[in-house]
Amino acid sequence: MTVNNIKTVGFIGLGQMGWPMASRLAAAGFALVIQDADPVRMNDFCKQVNGLIKVAESDSAWAEVDALITMLPNSKIVEKVLLDSGVARQLRPGTLLIDMSSSEPICTRSLATTLRESGLAFIDAPVSGGVKGAVAGTLAVMVGGEIEDLERARDLLDCIGKNIFHVGQAGAGHAAKALNNYVSAATLLITVEALHAAEEFGIDPLMMTDVLNASSGRSNTTENKVKQFMLSGTYGSGFSLKLMAKDVRIAMNLIEAQRQLAPLGRSSLTVWEQGASVADAGTDHTEMYALLSGKDKIK
Ligand code: NAD
Predict the structure, then answer these.
(1) What per-residue confidence (pLDDT) applies to 2?
(2) DSSP 8-state assignment for residue 184
(3) Domain 6-phosphogluconate dehydrogenase NADP-binding, which positions (predicted)?
(4) What is the pTM of this model?
(5) CA 271 to ligand 1 centroid distance, Å
């Protein structure tokens, strides 16, 4: 392995986002060593995606990788996989770990220290842009860590994202990601409230969406979610309600740790956590449109 020459990439977490991200790496010619808790998903990935792909049958497979990406639900699972189950112990000294999950920034700082003390390099590089952006390779990527480690990962990240930001030291990427979703989550709620109010008043929500999109209420929610996933009733954005609630909670923990006032964010968190308490694992975050339909579904 030379410093900038990453050829074999480990990829753990082939979910809604991980699958298309890993597919793009395979298509770009990186050899992959993959793992997911769901064996069916791993087999399907090997069958459906072309490229040099190997399933990590045992932990020793990780010694082959030059870089290891995690795309997992949260910090607890990232730590469990890397530290408790011993994946990190199998990596060669100097291997670059890249946590692209939306994890907890404070946990990320201490994970980065632990990994560095073991002779490994680490950056956090969470993403925004949804499944659509993951398929197209147009995600925004927010990187925390040393700039040299970002440069080592540059070729890899270029396959996955369009805008790559170095936002600070380890954990800063995860902080920026959580704060982005904090804004996005509150915007979605206020938009849904406005759409229901419009409908009650006799304005077609499709018309109201066109008005918002041509006016100052325009947002990613109005442009890319309302008609596509809410008014169509498909609720299929590929980002679960529980994961959105997790992200708002991460941002609120960060804000509370800094003793900032955040009355709007607190209300938003309450609504997302109430939604998460009645949602199952597969409930899409855009289903908040139905949950807030004024029929008292969230109590
Ligand atoms: P997902 O639930 O679809 O996928 C998670 C994957 O991790 C699953 O395939 C699951 O089987 C696997 N997994 C869980 N525990 C594991 C373990 N112990 N070992 C190995 N594999 C394990 O989630 P997702 O939507 O792909 O999101 C992944 C991360 O990216 C989350 O942190 C999420 O917040 C973030 N994110 C999601 C989106 C989106 O639009 N879906 C966008 C940006 C960021």
Answers:
(1) 37
(2) H
(3) 8-168
(4) 0.95
(5) 22
